[in-house]
Amino acid sequence: MTRRTFTSDKIAPPVGPFAPAAASGEAIYLSGQVGQDPQTGALVAGGVAAETEQIFRNLGAVLAAAGKSFDDVIRVGVYLTDMTQFTAMNGVYAQHFTAPYPARTTIGVAALPLGAAVEIDLIAR
Fold first, then answer.
1. Domains of the chain
2. Residue 105: helix, strand or coil by DSSP?
């Protein structure tokens, strides 16, 4: 297996031993992103909507580094610490995809890195 990795100087560096994206064959797997400000490394203020906006900026930068865009995404994983915030997340999410939409799973979780309210990962081709 040949694994290629991708990153961008437009996101905060990973805080662990992982790549922001890894590809094998045509599939590109983007690691989960939280709403981390690339300049400070801190979580952006403003709640779920602000965090989701920053997540999509981060994911977009990694997709671009891999030569892809949101049009190439086939699956999305969303993780929320409070499912009552689904509508706020979904409002921002809807701005980044057009039909035909990628598959998506949304899961309620107990906690996320940096105390984030939302984390999103992607698979693209």
1. 4-124 (3.30.1330.40)
2. strand
Q: Which residue has the tokens 């086939």?
A: 74
* Placement of tokens 């991708």 in the chain: 6
Q: Name the H helices within 28-107.
A: 47-65, 86-93
At 78-97, the pLDDT tens digits run: 999 999 999 999 999 999 99
Report if pTM > 0.85.
yes
* Strand ranges for the chain from DSSP E: 4-6, 21-24, 27-33, 73-80, 103-108, 118-124
pLDDT for res 15:
81
Integer-rounded Cα Rg, in Å, for the chain is 14
Comparing CA positions, the residue from 49, 4, 22 lying closest to residue 121 is 22
